[in-house]
């Protein structure tokens, strides 16, 4: 595979398995499997959240504040973490702020982001890897097939993040570990 083709392939993989996509798919799966009546509300909440974050990212890139849409530089991350926490908290409130499959998942994801935000002082953990690993563990009770697919895709996503030079190997592996721990924490407390 030529360099440009492999870089393009890595970019496609990174976009297809972006944390927004992964978390949206996980929330929709949880709503569908646990509380089908909440599916329209979940979809609307996800759509609004993605729109808010997308507008923010567009503004940061257009204003020259971020090099990439991924907030790939460590110093770009704190604002990304703050926005993600605000959006996740708003989504949790939108869903009723009560214990449910999706709201507990949102709280676990928020805890994961908090740990990544604190760790950012020393290491820029891959949120792509963390979200996919989290989804792999968290989706197991909902759909073992989806869970296995997510876990199977981790090496491909890791390759893509390394190929695009968005992360180092320790950042990729640290992201996987963070996602696995957060997903396991969600299952243990459920």
Automatic annotation (TrEMBL):
Organism: Luteimonas terrae
Coiled-coil stretches: none
Key words, A-Z: Membrane, Transmembrane, Transmembrane helix
Transmembrane segments: 12-32, 38-58, 79-95, 101-120, 132-160, 172-189
Protein name: Phosphatase PAP2 family protein
